[in-house]
Amino acid sequence: MGVLSRISAAILSIVLLGAIFHIRWENGFFVSKGGWEWDLVMLAAVLAIIVAGPGRISISHVVKKIPRFLQ
Q1: Burial level of 39, CB count in 10 A (0-12/13-18/19+)?
Q2: DSSP state of 69
């Protein structure tokens, strides 16, 4: 939807970093042994959302295009 996507992604990145370092670090890298491989992939996806933003078809982008006199 693109509403507050960067803020939500920043919060999720903090949660994922906590999961990697506090819960799964001792298990090693591979997810088959309970490791943090999948968490790292999800962290990369969340960081991509932070960098790229919500996109052109998001609600927040559509709202920005509405002329001021219609609001």
Answers
A1: buried
A2: G
- Containing structural domain, residue 46: 5-70
Could you give the maximum distance between any two Cα atoms of the chain, in Å? 58
Report the number of distinct structural domains present in the chain.
Answer: 1
Q: 3-state DSSP call for residue 53?
A: coil
The predicted-structure confidence for 26-65, as pLDDT tens digits, reads as follows: 999 999 999 999 999 999 999 999 999 888 888 877 887 8
Q: Do 2 and 55 touch, CB atoms closer than 8 A?
A: yes
Within 13 Å and on the Cβ side, how many CA atoms surround 26? 2
